[in-house]
């Protein structure tokens, strides 16, 4: 029974990883691609690791460490990529509000004499 549950969890994780790849292809600009890829791949990786943990309980500590690493680095790296893309002037398609531009504009006005 636990093997069936592990297979189902891995399959659901694979679906989320597939949707992350699909999001990278379908989204219109770099910022939505980063968001789609990060959220879905983080969840997909955690589900696959959980399914592996169900299959191999003796690997639980190692898989927990890997899951922690994924949870810490995926959002951090996507944030750094999006800040770099914004600084490089990547166009935003369909975005109404650019909070980072507004934040940088206010900071630039306050620092100038």
Structure notes:
The chain has about 110 residues and is mostly helical. Helix content is about 80%, strand content about 0%. It starts with a helix and ends with a helix.
What can be said about this structure in brief?
Helix content is 81%, strand content 0%.
Structural class: mainly alpha
Helix content: over 70%
Give the number of helices: 4
Percent in strands: under 5%
The description of the largest β-sheet is:
none
Molecular shape: elongated
The radius of gyration is: 19 Å
Kindly report the average pLDDT value. Answer: 87
Report the uncertain regions: 106-112
Give the helices and strands as they follow along the chain: HHHH
DSSP, total strands? 0
Total count of domains? 1
Distance between the ends:
70 Å
Which descriptors would you attach to this protein?
disordered C terminus
What is the topology?
Blueprint: H1 2-26, H2 30-55, H3 60-87, H4 99-111
Helix pairs in contact: 1-2, 2-3
């Amino acid at each position: 029974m636990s093997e069936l549950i592990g297979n189902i969890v891995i399959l659901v994780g694979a679906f989320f990883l597939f949707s992350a790849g699909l999001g990278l292809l379908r989204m219109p600009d770099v910022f939505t691609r980063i968001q789609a890829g990060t959220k879905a791949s983080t969840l997909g990786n955690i589900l696959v690791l959980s399914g592996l943990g169900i299959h191999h309980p003796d690997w639980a500590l190692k898989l927990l460490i890997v899951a922690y690493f994924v949870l810490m680095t995926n959002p951090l790296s996507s944030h750094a990529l999006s800040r770099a893309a914004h600084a490089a002037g990547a166009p935003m398609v369909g975005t109404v509000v650019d909070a980072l531009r507004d934040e940088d504009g206010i900071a630039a006005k306050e620092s100038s004499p």
